[in-house]
What we know:
Blueprint (H helix, E strand, L loop, with lengths): L3 E6 L7 H14 L4 E5 L5 H5 L11 H11 L7 E2 L5 E3 L8 H5 L8 H6 L8 E5 L6 H9 L2 E7 L2 H19 L9 E8 L6 H13 L16 H7 L4 H4 L4 H15 L4 E2 L9 H8 L24
Parallel strand pairs: 1-5, 1-6, 2-4, 2-5, 6-7
Antiparallel strand pairs: 3-4, 7-8
Helix pairs in contact: 1-11, 7-12
Amino acid sequence: MTARVIFIGGGKGGTGKTTTGQNLASALLAKGLKILGVDGDGQASWSHLNGLFPRKGRPNIFTAVKQLIENFEAKLAIYHLPSGLDFIPSSAALHKIVSDLASVERSEYLLQQLLAPVLERYDIIIIDCPPALHAWTNNIFMAANDGIITVQLEPLGIASAGETLEYLQTLRKRGLFQAHDLKITGGLITMMDVRTSIHRNLAEVAEEKLGMHINFFRTRIERTIQFPESQYFGMPIDLYNKDSKGTTAYQALAEEVVSGTSLSSVSRLNVPAGFADSLLLDASSIEEQVGEDGTEITWEEVNVII
């Protein structure tokens, strides 16, 4: 059996991507599945949570990609963690990867090529995306079968999810997914505080507007102090507190991910131009800035000579 590769993305940072990667992987391991985690973010947050701090001589995803670019072959380091998770860490050097990819023909297939030899070892491979949309993110999309879009219940968080869908649609129109039927696993609302009316209202906006284009998981990830507590101890939440509502939520999410009931195809995306901007307006009271007389706001251009 070939592994199902799932990315976790959402455009901006702070939307719960790494927390979801850590805790979904653990919930899937608890179901008896073989899981490989891949830290695809130069911030290396998932690596830090697993105690794999970037250091000289420690191979990581960047060193493997760099080897593949320079030598057309590479050694992919997979770390076997005590939790049962197999893991490929990242480092800050990954921030440089976009410039390295610029001179590589068919560079969007490098990660796919790196993971190909290990696909039969695992049931699911989870890739944590960087908070950006660029050539390296394209690699992650091309390596994946489907992906979770995390939606933070803030105006910019909702708009960022919309920007991700716009970007995926643009890549499809450019022909990147011509022979690759990438799917969206589902939209995942994260860090929700159900006690606040603003979060309840924004959840409705997200599911109404984004839900016209992707399916949402029934599971919502609610805020709990036990998420930062579990991270303090370097543990997934189910190992830190099996009775936590966070544990229950990620167990439920794991069931939905495995069942695939929320899957939708990128090939069917039809988001309108300016979708992310319209989401920002729908999710806030922000209005277009105008001058005092109602005309377009003026600006000044300053000459800069070097």
